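Q: Focus on the shape:
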Amino acid sequence: MKHFWLFAALLFFSALLSHAQVVNTEKLRLDKKEKDIYGEANLDLGLARNRAGQTVRLGAGARLELRRSNHRWMLLGAYNLTQFNDVDEPGTAPKNFADNGFGHLRYNRRINDWLTWEAFAQAQYDKIQQIDLRLLAGAGPRVRLLRKDSAQLYFGALYMFEHEESRNEFEEPEAFTEQLILDDHRLSTYLSAGLHITSYLTVNHVTYFQPNLSNFSDFRISSETAVSIKLTNRLSLRTYFQLIYDTEPLVPVPNAMYVLNNGFSLVL
C-alpha cells in the first residue's frame, strides 16, 4: 500500500499545480498556440498481456509542463491497478490484484529550431513483472526532422543508465525468492511522429529502441500508437496500443507484452 499512497500523492500534487501553472513522454502537442503552463489528467480502462496472462487494468495519470523561453520542464506520473487470474488456477474467476506505477521528470533545452538537448530521470515499479524498483537517468540530443501545421517528426538518441532491483520467485523444488540487482548502460533511441488529421482527430506514434551498450543482442523495443478524439475543448477520448519486447528480461517473464487502453483525457 505504501506504493499506492506515494503515487496517489504525486498525482494529486500534479493536479493542483496544473491549475496554477505532459508511458508516454513523446505525446506531441500540435496546437500552434503552445501554452507556457500545461496540465493534463488521464483515466484509462484496458487489457494488458504480461506474466499473469491477459489481465484487466484500471489506471490514472497526470502530466505537467512548464515552458520558459528555451527551457521546458515536464513531470509525469501514473498508477495502474490490475486484476488477474491465479496463474496456478487459470479457470477461476479473477480475484488477485497487483499494481504498478512510475514518476518521470524531463528537462528540454532548445538549442535552435531543429535541435534540442534533453535530460530525464524516472522511477518505477511493477508487482506483476516482479520489478521492485527500476531507476533510469539519461541525456542526449533530440532532432526535429519535420514540423508542419498538421504533422511532426522527431528523432532522439540518448545515453541511459538503468538500475533494476527484481525478485525471481521459485516454487520448485521448494519455495524461495532470489533477489536480483542489475546496472546497465543503454542507448535509448526513438522516432516520434504526430499527425493532426482534423480539428478533433489526432494520431501519435513513438517507437523506442534501447540496446545494451556492452551487449547489443540485449535490447528492448517499445512501440505505442495513440488516437485522440476531441469531445470538447478540454475533454478527449483516447485509445492507445503499446507493445514491448525485451530480449533478456532480468527475471523469467514473457519477452513480449502489450497494453490496449481506452480512456479519457482532461486538460486542466
Q: What stands out?
A: The radius of gyration is 19 Å. The CA atoms of residues 16 and 268 lie 9 Å apart. The first strand starts at residue 37 and ends at 50. The mean pLDDT is 82.
